[in-house]
Amino acid sequence: RSRPSTDLLALAWRGRWMILLGVVLGLVGAWVALQQAVPRYLSTSRIYVERQLPKLLGADIQLAQSNAYLYTQAELIRSTGVLNKTLEDPEVAGLETIRSADNPVALLHSALSVFVGRDDELINVSLELPNRFEAAQLVNAIVDSYITHYVEKRKHNTKELLDILDKEKVQRDLALAAAREELEAFRESNPELAVHVDNQDVASDRFSRLLNELNQTELEQLTAKAEMERLKEMAASPTLRPMLLETALESVGKKDHARSLEVLENQRQDIELQLAAERAQWGDGYPKVKSLQRSLDAAEQRIRAREEAISTEKKLALKAYAFNVREQYEFLTSKLAELRKQYQQQFNDAKESSANSLRMASLEEAYHRAAQQVDTIDERIKELDLSNEVGAVNVSIVDSAAPASVRSYPSRAKFLGGGAMLGALCGFGLVWLRDFLDHRLKSVDEIEEAMQLPVLGVLRKQLGRLPREDLGQLVAIQPRSTSAEAFRTLRTAVYLGLAGDDCQVLLVTSPSPGDGKSVVASNLAIATAQADRRVLLIDADMRKPTQHTIFQVDRKLGLSSVLSERRPLEEAVCAEVLPSLDFLPAGATPSNPAELLNNDFFGELLERLKQRYDRIIIDSPPVMPVADSRVIAVHSDAVLLVLRAEKSTRRLSIAARDELWRVRAQRLGVVVNAVPQSKGGSYGYGYGYGYGYGGYGETAYGHDDQEVSSKGKKKRLLKSRPTESSQVLEKL
After folding, report:
1. Do the beta carbons of residue 559 and residue 544 sit within 8 Å?
2. Strand locations in 211-366 (E)
3. Sign of the CA dihedral 466, 468, 470, 476?
4. How many domains does the chain have?
5. Do β-strands 41-49 and 395-399 pair in parallel, antiparallel, or remain unpaired?
6. pLDDT for residue 418 is more than 70
7. For the chain, what percentages of helix, strand and coil (3-state, to nearest 5) are there?
8. Which domain, by its residues, includes 596?
9. Mean pLDDT (whole number) for 206-218
10. What is the pTM of this model?
11. Which residues contact 587 (CB under 8 A, 6 or more apart)?
């Protein structure tokens, strides 16, 4: 199964010290880099470039109105031509920055920044160099070079344009005089062209109107022909014929036939309803029934008559519609033929006079065009003369560059902020990588999602180092502590939630050694015994037994003796190690523990023990190293799998669960053991580390419950009884 999504905030909180270390290292690195960095100073000059230039050519108008004009000027300032012009100044060439550079143009181009302001139309020219005085001097020199270069270029272009326009004006004057002479000569040779009505030739105007009428008639004739063809197609098609009939009726102004038929049909339905009601009540012989029957017959007759009338109207309307369409087509065809005859005659009449008119119009147009060109050239020459006198200076310096008093690089805030950010990112990256490579189960949600099993309880890690016998009898030694309450809550979850009251044999195991299953088994057995139940705790871990150490009993006789030597249970069971709790040690270590468990005698032994005890809790070896726990799981009513916080891995825990499922273990649940107090929020609910009641009934470590000497343990164990609140919980 895939790993669940990581909560980045929780991950950052868990790795906060590593992230903090990354921030500190980032700040240190940034401070070192800050001390070693060569300071640079930024000098800026602001200039204003007028966007409305003198109108030299038509294209210049578009340039002045273009949104890219200022950006083009900004690129011109950074151009190689302007920079080379700047370096030609001896004063600039003698600066230390320029003399020490291998490629001064490349140096200026890389250090120069030119941009257009967002809220204004000012161009900002900035240069960042280690020498603040030379930076200001170079910025001002670049701006001066740009202005000089721009002005000289404009003056040169203006002079060239004036020369071109002067030559062009001479040629245009000659062309205008020739056009005037030719037009006057043609007018003298054709005096009949002087007859005009509203400055138009009468014959040409008549011909134009006739041509328009001819074109319009052709369109109408084509439309009429298409309408007639559509009528024929619809009349021949059974599906389109009803639409044709409706169109024909609309053409003659009859559209309400369907409405009248609908009214008659509604009347007939009303009569039918009345007739059915009266007939059902009085029968056919009743006078009103007969009267309604006659009314119904009359209504049906009216409907038939109306349908026949509508059919007749449709046929007549169709004939009239077809006649109108055909008549319209024939009329337009005849009209078109007549107009074509008139057009041909008018064309021949107008052809003779039109040629002279067209010639005269052409000469007049040539004359006016030549005159307009001469006027345009005169206007451009005047504008160029004015521009040349003014000098075409359209660039003004708003702010000159001055030596900066504060360095622009390195910025202490940016360096330290960037170092802290980079350090934090690196620290978080290491935390994330560590979490990604860490396959341990870290929360209850992750355990439930990975194991697909319910988490029945969460047990916190004990503060300080306690002997194993104290840990194993924590419920009896410290009955009012939160840990004891957690075991009682686990007992309730197991016997009321997971297994039910019919669960007699409970197996406690873990995926691997060192998970604390033996401590969980012994404390769970004590908590169950405190609930007025007759409990037997069996230490079935015959390879590495632990329970005899917890209860300080001899293990010479135990489970191995009963299974291998068939010793009586009475000899092996340690009765009343605590009130209501008996204990069956593991016995001497046999050579074949798995074989002793994997036989019918072990199952029979458990059946006999079920008759004597209310609850049997078995502490077995871990699941993965040996097969003992899997054999015992077959005979158990429920299995409690103990996982150790910050130790149990996903792969091993899932493998242990699968092994138990493979032998069909019943009612499998999980308990999380040894949860650190700082990680309680990830593993528990309510009060930080686990299930239960939190501070209710809690006794802090170091108080009376913990200050019991080892000599007085036996007395305290015999006197330990459940509190009144826990007794009420057990009855529930």
Report:
1. no
2. none
3. positive
4. 2
5. antiparallel
6. yes
7. 65, 10, 25
8. 456-726
9. 79
10. 0.47
11. 542, 545, 555, 556, 557, 558, 559, 560, 561, 562, 572
